[in-house]
Sequence to fold (163 residues):
Amino acid sequence: METTRPGKTELGESTETGRAMNWRSWTWKDIDFPRDSATKLQDRFEMGFFESVLASEPDQLDALLALGNLYSKYRLHEKGLEVDKRLVRMHPREPLYYYNLACSHSLLGQIDTAFDALTQALQLGYDKFEQLKADPDLENLKKDCRYESLLKEHHPTPERENG
Fold:
């Protein structure tokens, strides 16, 4: 075993003439993991954990929400779509779930179904219009003339109210 400097191995073990004296003298905390690698490993662990929770408890809301966020973070759009569909089936009156469903459909290029979900979200009371306008997940919808019509229909502006 080569050492990186006299008295230490590359893992930080004590050495005597280049040999580790005690292989238990280091811990995982001694290893300098790049932050992005550690985050990715943690996220992969959490994905597996939440997937296993859902295998035994398919309607576990917290696990579904966390898993949906992770799928979105890593651009696993097909898997995210499945989570969004489950959430909408479980909570058909929740506008945020329809909004997320619209985003998933949009990201997958499923424009008509994205508009259906976004319309449903707005009809149920989704009212975060600044988020809706700024959300890059809806870029595919913004290219379609139906997008502006839908916003005008559901987002009252002072000019239209005073008429």
User: Anything to note?
Assistant: The mean pLDDT is 85. The radius of gyration is 25 Å. The chain is about 60% helix and 5% strand. The CA atoms of residues 106 and 114 lie 5 Å apart.
